[in-house]
Amino acid sequence: MDFFKYQGTGNDFILIDDRAETFPVSQERIARLCHRRFGIGADGLILLRNHPEYDFQMVYFNADGAEGSMCGNGGRCIVRFAHDLGLFEAETRFLAVDGEHQASVNDAEVLLKMNEIAGIDQQADYAFLNTGSPHYVKVVEDVESMDVVAEGRPVRYDSRFAPGGTNANFMQPIGANALFVRTYERGVEDETYSCGTGVTASALVAHRQLGMSSPVSIQTLGGNLRVSFVTTADGGFSDLYLIGPAVRVFTGSVAV
Ligand SMILES: N[C@@H](CCC[C@H](N)C(=O)O)C(=O)O
């Protein structure tokens, strides 16, 4: 089977052109393909399929092989993949697990429109919201030196977020409208270099909690992203865009 490897700020994915719907989906197989010792290695695997009403459909699996909720960096990578396949020229509409997404590409970046957010559950020492995937967001003083796995894993399995659990983001303001964000990802069960839905959640919490305005620039371990948004009268967010690079790394062939 031919595969394509893409990364968006270091969040890396196996992309498969499954327009013929021949990929043999199984949790064990996908987990093996994503394994960094026994497989290709990736934070997730994404199938690109045809859809009668859209340019394409995105079917996303976490590295543990289970079908996941929305993946922002994966969404940007599949847009670049669809563009590389010649499925659209500059702008596209595609279907993902959380509904329709619009996106556009230029040489350097992919701009992915995220779904509107109704509001943020703000607690005393953290915030929780769903940006296509569930995210816990906490402001910390020294994000660079903290142990994200040691602090994030208990949050990921905390009973407050049961039964699905949550991703855990730790953010530090590094400028007037700038953050450094690190994320423990559910389904990878480790820190990843970047999480698109996680930085989207962090930018909105930074607006609400720290007074940051759109666009918020975000540094991650794997590179830089921007999140732009408009606030709505009822306390939500619309016109939400996740913006940053998404590139093909290599292609190959693997036995399934
Ligand atoms: N890496 C993703 C998030 C993927 C989903 C997450 N692992 C979950 O299960 O909630 C992103 O870029 O948004």
TrEMBL record:
The active site is at residues 71, 195. Catalyzes the stereoinversion of LL-2,6-diaminopimelate (L,L-DAP) to meso-diaminopimelate (meso-DAP), a precursor of L-lysine and an essential component of the bacterial peptidoglycan. It comes from the Bacteria. One of its GO terms (molecular function) is diaminopimelate epimerase activity. Belongs to the diaminopimelate epimerase family. It catalyses: (2S,6S)-2,6-diaminopimelate = meso-2,6-diaminopimelate. Keywords: Amino-acid biosynthesis, Cytoplasm, Isomerase, Lysine biosynthesis. Pathway: Amino-acid biosynthesis; L-lysine biosynthesis via DAP pathway; DL-2,6-diaminopimelate from LL-2,6-diaminopimelate: step 1/1. SUPFAM superfamilies: Diaminopimelate epimerase-like (SSF54506). This is Diaminopimelate epimerase. The record marks 135, 185 as: Could be important to modulate the pK values of the two catalytic cysteine residues. One of its GO terms (cellular component) is cytosol. Its EC number is 5.1.1.7. Homodimer. It comes from Larkinella punicea. Substrate binds at residues 11, 62, 72-73, 167, 185-186, 196-197. GO terms for biological process: lysine biosynthetic process via diaminopimelate. The keyword Amino-acid biosynthesis applies. It holds the Pfam family DAP_epimerase. The keyword Acetylation does not apply. InterPro entries: DAP_epimerase_DapF. It is found in: Cytoplasm.
